[in-house]
Amino acid sequence: MKVLILAAGLGKRMKSKYPKVMHKILEKELVNWVIDTAKELNPTEIGVVLGYKGELVEKILPEGIKIYYQKEQLGTGHAVMSAEEFLNDEDILILYGDTPLITASTLSKLIDKHKNTNADATILTAILDNPAGYGRIVKDENGKFINIVEDADASEEEKKIKEINSGFVIFKGDKLKNALKELKPNNNQGEYYLTDVPKMLENVETYVLEDFSEALGINNRIQLANAEKILRKRILENLMLNGVTITDPDTVYIGPDVKIGQDTIIYPMTFIYGKTEIGEDCEIGPMTRINNCQIGNNVKILRSECEDAILKDNVSVGPYSRLRTGTVLNEKVKIGNYVETKKTIVGKGSKAQHLTYLGDATIGEDVNIGAGTITCNYDGKNKHKTFIGDRVFVGSNTALVAPVKIENDVLIGAGSTITEDIPEGSLALGRARQVTKENWVFNKREKGE
C-alpha cells in the first residue's frame, strides 16, 4: 500500500503568507502530523502533492517523501493526477495535509475493511445528526454505494441522509488510474473532484468513523487552536495512563514525539517539545520549557529553559537556568539560578550555582564554579574554548578569557581575570592589589569636599 497526501492548497482563511499545512500544532507542522500517522501504517511509499509556495513546504518534510506539484489548483482529483507517476497497482490511501487529528488506528480499520471486502475503493464516512455542508453518501435500498453528492448539489431527499463523506479513501491503484483518465470537470467550479471517482467503480465499500473529530480539517486559526486542544489532551492522557504524573493538564503542553518515563512528575506551565526523551523519577517544572533534549533519571529542572541539551542521571537545573545547544551535563551536575551554558560539557559532580555564563567550555569533574564567573569566549570575530580540569575551584566573579587551559586541582582567587594557562595544583590571582587609605573619607568631610 502507498499513501498520497494532498497538501497543495493555499488556505485563504488562515490569513497567512505561509501555506496552510506549514502551520504548527505543538511545534509540529500540520503536514508532518499526517506524515507521521501515515508512517505508522508501514506503507511502501509516501507521496505529498504540493502547490502554493511548495518550495517552503519541501524544506520541512522528512527525508524519503516523494514530492509532486499541482501547478494549478483544479480540485482534489487534479491533485491526484499531478502524482500520476506515483500510482501503480498497489492500493493507495488518500490523506490530506490539513487533517492532523486522524489516527493510525482508524486508518488501519479502514484498510482492513478494504482488504477483507476486496473493494475497488473504501470510503471513510461518518454519521452526523446535522450533516449540513458535507457531501452525502447515497446508497440503494440494499445499502450498496451509488454516489457521493455534494451538499450544494443535493436534493431535499438527499439532504436528509446523515452518512457523510470524510474525504479519506483507499483505492485499488489500477482502478484509480483508469478512473482518473475518465474524470471530467462537470461542475460549476470547473474542477476535477476525487469524489466523482467512486461512482465510476463497481465495488465501493464504506467504513463508518467512530469519532468524527478525527476527520476535521484545519481551515482557520480558530480550528487550529481547537485541534491543538484535542491533540494535547490525547497526548497527556496517554502519558498519565503510562505512569507519568501531570499535576495540571490544563497548563502543560507536550509534543507528540516526546517520551517520558514512569514516575516522572510534570508541574504546571511546562512546555516539552521536539524529540525530547525524559527518564524516570524526574521532576520537571513548573514554568519550564524543554526542546529536543535527552534527560536521564532522577533529574530536577525548575523554572528553566533547555534546548538541544543532554542531561544525565541525578542532574539538578534551575531555577532560571538556560541550557543552550550543545550543553552536556554529566551525572550529579548542579546548574543553579541565572546560569547559562552553550556548547559546554560539564563533568560529573561539578557545580555552577549562581549568575554564571559558560560558553564553548569543557569542565572536568568535581569543579566548583563561583558566582558571577564567565567564560569570555568571543573576541568579536571568533569563538574560543576554555578547558578546566578536575577538582578546580573558581572563585566568584572570575573572567576566563579564552583560549585558556586550567589544569587539575587549581584554585583561582575571587575577582580574577585569567588570560594565561594555569598549571596543575596552582593558585592563580589576576586582580589589582587593594589600596586602603585610612581616614580618607573623614578628612574630606572636614575640608568640606
Structure notes:
With 449 residues, the chain is an alpha/beta fold. It folds into three domains: 2-215, Alpha-Beta Complex (Spore Coat Polysaccharide Biosynthesis Protein SpsA, Chain A); 242-303, Hexapeptide repeat proteins (UDP N-Acetylglucosamine Acyltransferase, domain 1, 3 Solenoid); 316-449, Hexapeptide repeat proteins (UDP N-Acetylglucosamine Acyltransferase, domain 1, 3 Solenoid), CATH 2.160.10.10. It has a 16-stranded parallel β-sheet that branches. It has a nine-stranded parallel β-sheet with strand order 14-17-20-23-26-28-30-33-36, with no helix packed on it. It has a seven-stranded mixed β-sheet with strand order 5-4-1-6-10-7-11. Helix 2 links the parallel strand 4 (45-50) and strand 5. The longest helix has 21 residues, at 221-241. The chain is elongated. The model has no long low-confidence stretch (mean pLDDT 96). Residues 1-221 are annotated as: Pyrophosphorylase. It is found in: Cytoplasm. Its main location: cytoplasm. It comes from Marinitoga piezophila (strain DSM 14283 / JCM 11233 / KA3). InterPro entries: Bifunctional_GlmU, GlmU-like, GlmU_C_LbH, GMPPB_C, Hexapep, Hexapep_transf_CS, MobA-like_NTP_Trfase, Nucleotide-diphossugar_trans.
Task: Output the keywords.
elongated, UDP N-Acetylglucosamine Acyltransferase, domain 1, Spore Coat Polysaccharide Biosynthesis Protein SpsA, Chain A, 7 helices, 449 residues, 16-stranded parallel sheet
Secondary structure: helix percent: 10-25%
Total number of β-strand segments? 39
Instruction: Give me the CATH architecture of the largest domain, please.
Output: Alpha-Beta Complex
Task: Provide the residue-averaged pLDDT.
Answer: 96
Q: Distance between termini?
A: 92 Å
Radius of gyration: 31 Å
Largest sheet: 16 strands, parallel
Helical stretch count?
7
Category by helix and strand content:
alpha/beta
State the name of the first-level CATH class of the largest domain. Answer: Alpha Beta
CATH superfamily of the largest domain: Spore Coat Polysaccharide Biosynthesis Protein SpsA, Chain A
Strand content: 25-35%
Counted up, domains total 3
Region (Linker): 222-242
Subcellular location: Cytoplasm
Catalytic activity: N-acetyl-alpha-D-glucosamine 1-phosphate + UTP + H(+) = UDP-N-acetyl-alpha-D-glucosamine + diphosphate; alpha-D-glucosamine 1-phosphate + acetyl-CoA = N-acetyl-alpha-D-glucosamine 1-phosphate + CoA + H(+)
Binding site for Mg(2+): 98, 219
